[in-house]
Amino acid sequence: MAGELDLVLERTLNAPRDLVWRAWTDPELLKQWFAPKPYLISELEMDLQPGGIFRIRMTGPDGFDTGHGNAGCVLEVIDGEKLIWTSALGPQYRPAEMGEGCESFPMTAIVTLADAPGGKTLYRAVALHKDKADRDQHEAMGFQDGWGTCAAQLEELAAGLKAEA
Question: Is residue 144 situated within a structural domain?
């Protein structure tokens, strides 16, 4: 399914799918894992319906700041299974302005979850790009390390939710 313009991260997370989904869709939980520590999500807006907003502002101790964060657009939500959003469009499918740094190129993210043996979750995140230059820029910015670190943080948080359940 992934093409040459895509970056793909796949992991089997040691947490049940419903709790991984909860960690993805509850804004207060998403803030806890979506930025590789010591970076953090300082602002977040999510309206998980087609045309809804998906906006994240990430900051770091080194002065890194995505600014107010470009407002992306939710494209598809299948409860417990799939979340798709894009930075190419803003809320209500309006064409988006690109910013700087990690917001300087449009991308579409497809996150899918599936049950894995032993109460685990098969987690797949795909970042689609319009051309090789954008893909290469995203990869050079540390896609695998950054999204991989976030997946580990997601797993830890979801497993903790399991322990509390």
Answer: yes
